[in-house]
Amino acid sequence: MRPRVGVIGAGVYGTTVLQAFSWAQRCRQIELAAVAEIDEDVLTKQAERFSVQGYADYRDMLQQEDLDAVAIVTPDHLHKEMALNCADSGIHMMVQKPLDVTTAGASAMVQAARDADVLLYVDFHKRFDPGHVQLRRDVSKGKLGRIQYGYVWMEDKIVVPSVWFRDWAQHSSPVWFLGVHFFDLLQWILGTKPVRVTATGVKDKLIAMGIDTYDSIQAKIEYANGAHFSVDCSWILPESFPSIVNQGIRMVGSQGIWEVDSQDRGVFYAVEEDAGSVVPNYYANMEREDPEGAAYPTGYVIDSMLWFLQLVSRLKDGKGLADIAGLYPSGEEALVSTRLCEGIHESLAAENAILFDW
Ligand SMILES: NC(=O)c1ccc[n+]([C@@H]2O[C@H](COP(=O)([O-])OP(=O)(O)OC[C@H]3O[C@@H](n4cnc5c(N)ncnc54)[C@H](O)[C@@H]3O)[C@@H](O)[C@H]2O)c1
């Protein structure tokens, strides 16, 4: 029997999840059973596009569909309520990052999944980017020596907070929405936790547009192994920037240096029908066609989602959570990146910098 799977939230990223799950269904790995979405127009359109049962209230979907697993792809601050209900119904779940926007909320989700003995997979797809996979291998083998310092950056175009999710950007921030990706990645690569953080941020452009959140945040993180990392996160890049996201990581150790530019993968194009040139990241997500002409998605974004489904299949085939421990980005691990985001906001609020009185 194939696992029956549902999706909660069918907006921008929910569409990507539905495309990945739909491909898994075509490959006869799962049954994509249903989608839940509160926006009536979006629900009608997506239920028809993916040929699934639609629900306006996700709780009805959980009750009526006999699901094995669900993907939670709603705004950041809404994940918790849905995860607690999934756990209550004994349903495995893949939750979008960030797990929650408070450590207390994320802890409650982890505890609920543990109590119900269900899988809590956090969709940190940066762990699936080939550049990051190789970087981690080299760090693990000690090729870079002792990691001393590094830099990560993740910056979105302003269309993301001002148009794509204008309704809920004030509940998130460049750190909760973007930085959390690299905080998880750093923990995964370094194999250690942050012990200290300080941060500064700017509120200006989005406030002027009526959206009460930070434009940009810079943080300095110290890890338990003594490595220091600088972080730049923002979501105010201009429309003319040639990618939706600018991102990358570099690190320097006593015996080596590694850099991954996840924005510029060496591909660019400019065509008259587009306003400017484009730098696409085909490593992340790309639509291809199988020999019969059917479209299917590929890339590290999709790999993470398909891996979740693989794990759900193993659990349905009789394996237990102990059998797959350590094989995926877990809720327990996500507590660290959640606490780090929270700590950065605490540092911003405390304005605990040394002031120079010239
Ligand atoms: N992994 C990534 O790279 C990545 C990228 C983008 C977004 N995300 C994450 O995915 C999540 C969704 O982001 P998005 O960009 O798709 O946002 P979005 O606003 O485009 O979509 C969210 C959808 O959830 C729906 N929704 C809200 N409350 C609901 C409810 N109670 N029941 C059912 N549906 C409900 C909304 O109507 C909307 O259609 C966020 O947590 C975001 O951080 C992850």
Fold blueprint:
Elements: E1 4-8, H1 12-26, E2 31-36, H2 40-49, E3 53-55, H3 58-64, E4 69-72, H4 79-88, E5 92-95, H5 103-116, E6 120-122, H6 130-140, E7 147-157, H7 159-164, H8 174-190, E8 194-202, H9 205-208, E9 216-223, E10 228-237, E11 245-253, E12 256-261, E13 286-289, E14 295-298, H10 300-316, H11 321-324, H12 331-350
Parallel strand pairs: 1-2, 1-4, 2-3, 4-5, 5-6, 7-10
Antiparallel strand pairs: 7-11, 8-9, 9-10, 11-12, 13-14
Residues 8-14, 36-39, 42, 58, 73-76, 78, 96-97, 123, 125, 164-165, 177 line the site of nicotinamide-adenine-dinucleotide (NAD).
How helical, in percent, are the residues? Answer: 25-40%
Which molecules other than protein and nucleic acid are bound? nicotinamide-adenine-dinucleotide
Q: How far apart lie the N and C ends? A: 72 Å
CATH fold descriptor of the largest domain: Rossmann fold
Number of helices: 12
| Total of domains | 2
- How would you characterize the largest beta sheet? 6 strands, parallel
Description:
The protein is α/β, with parallel strands linked by helices. The protein has 2 domains: 4-125 and 291-330, NAD(P)-binding Rossmann-like Domain (Rossmann fold), CATH 3.40.50; 130-283, Dihydrodipicolinate Reductase, domain 2, CATH 3.30.360.10. Helix content is 38%, strand content 24%. The protein contains 12 helices and 14 strands. It has helices spanning 12-26, 40-49, 58-64, 79-88, 103-116, 130-140, 159-164, 174-190, 205-208, 300-316, 321-324, 331-350, and strands spanning 4-8, 31-36, 53-55, 69-72, 92-95, 120-122, 147-157, 194-202, 216-223, 228-237, 245-253, 256-261, 286-289, 295-298. The strands form 3 sheets. Strands 3-2-1-4-5-6 form a 6-stranded parallel β-sheet, sandwiched between helices. Helix 4 links the parallel strand 4 and strand 5 (92-95). The longest helix is centred in the last third of the chain and has 20 residues, at 331-350. The chain binds nicotinamide-adenine-dinucleotide. Nicotinamide-adenine-dinucleotide is lined by residues 8-14, 36-39, 42, 58, 73-76, 78, 96-97, 123, 125, 164-165, 177.
